[in-house]
Amino acid sequence: MQVAATHTGSDFDALASLVATSVLYPGIKLILPHSINPNLKTFLSLHKDLFNFYSSKDIDIDKIKSLVVVDTSSWKRLEELQSLKERKDIEIILFDHHEKDDIEPDYVIRKETGAAVTLIIQEIQKQKKIITPIQATLFLMGIYEDTGNLTFPSTTSDDVYAAAYLLDRKADLSILNTFLQYAYGKKQKNILFRMLQKTERLNVNNFTISIATMEIEGRIQNLAVVVQMYREIVNVDAAFGIFLDTKTNKSMIIGRSGSEQINMGLIMRTLGGGGHPGAGSAQIKNVNPNAIETMIIELIKGNNQTSVNISDIMSYPVITVNENTPVEDVTMLLREVGCTGVPITDKDDKLVGIVSRRDFKKVRKNSQMKSPIKAFMSRNPVYISSDKSAMEAAKLMIKHDIGRIPIMKNDKIIGIVTRSDTMLYFYDLLPD
Fold this sequence. Notes:
The protein is of the alpha/beta class. The chain has 3 domains: 2-179, Alpha-Beta Complex (inorganic pyrophosphatase (n-terminal core)); 186-301, Diaminopimelate Epimerase, Chain A, domain 1; 310-428, CBS-domain (Roll), CATH 3.10.580.10. Helix content is 34%, strand content 22%. It is built from 14 helices and 19 strands. The chain has helices at 12-24, 38-47, 117-126, 133-147, 157-168, 173-179, 186-197, 223-234, 264-270, 289-301, 327-337, 357-360, 390-400, 419-428; strands at 2-6, 29-31, 53-54, 66-70, 91-96, 107-110, 202-204, 207-216, 238-245, 250-257, 274-276, 279-285, 321-322, 341-345, 351-356, 378-379, 384-385, 404-409, 412-418. The strands form 4 sheets. The protein has a 6-stranded parallel β-sheet, with helices on one face. A 6-stranded mixed β-sheet has the order 7-8-9-10-12-11, with helices on both faces. Helix 1 packs parallel to helix 3 and helix 1 (12-24) runs antiparallel to helix 4 (133-147).
């Protein structure tokens, strides 16, 4: 069975990309996430019967042999399908316009375009597939929503050519105008007014930015529209809204960028979310909003140094394991000390590798428990100098998708920093 999936909190680009896969792969089952945005709900209330969607609960996951993922590269955004991450017998095909994340596909088309559906439309054109007017209309909605009607800085010539192709296939602009009307009511107006009252323009690395922190109560729709309007009104290169829900103590961070040099998707990915160069969002629980603001500013600065060196937050002394230690002994050691990974050294105490939970998944037979740990460790480990910053360590963790980094001084391991250490620094540095 072949299925297609997209990210939770789907927008028109995600839905359009999902439907477009059915043109490329006839017979594919389209899995619609439980969480979709309000505009999409309105559209589907009238058009759902035109498309054959499934819920993940309707699918026997064990029978999936091929998975097409669109508009995301992150397993955690695929709801119940995250369990497929451990399956090695599944073909994965990926279409995405975001930064690379933890999904490792067998076949990928990834390119910086304003909309993900643009990439699939290009494949449809190459294969000379036929699309219906309603499909063309939906695909154009995906492009228009994610590019701000082709006005966002992230818009590319590929998006424009794709839009022209869809108009030539009878895409209906009147339907677009009906369903791309963003809900902007009393709540949204009040929040925008409060944000404007507190406006502060900051100069960071010759960019003008504005960060507004607001307390809200409960879920409020279309805050992204508010942040976009806020950026346009205060006329800054980038604007951020940090919305703290007092009921759940969760902070929703929404960013909009008008500068190609401020990659909003990368910034939000650092905060645990995602997006693309012009727009992004993240959600964090039990975090001091002031610490989030500090981290955003540091990310835009791109400094190699902050006021705190990595040596100030590292853990020490470091437990290391010789490369010839049996796997079973390493397993027992980690269980005793309560950690999930450890640096591996040679007879001269030189760092030669690192082992973590994902490496132990390579151990499939009981006989392998007697093997030396060097047979399963990750070689060429990422490490960092003791004079570097917490920010630089966090960037390395994100880039290499790792949870711990040894700290080196004069070619010796003097400490180790984990993802938890860096997050505690960024989020708990400032008092509540």
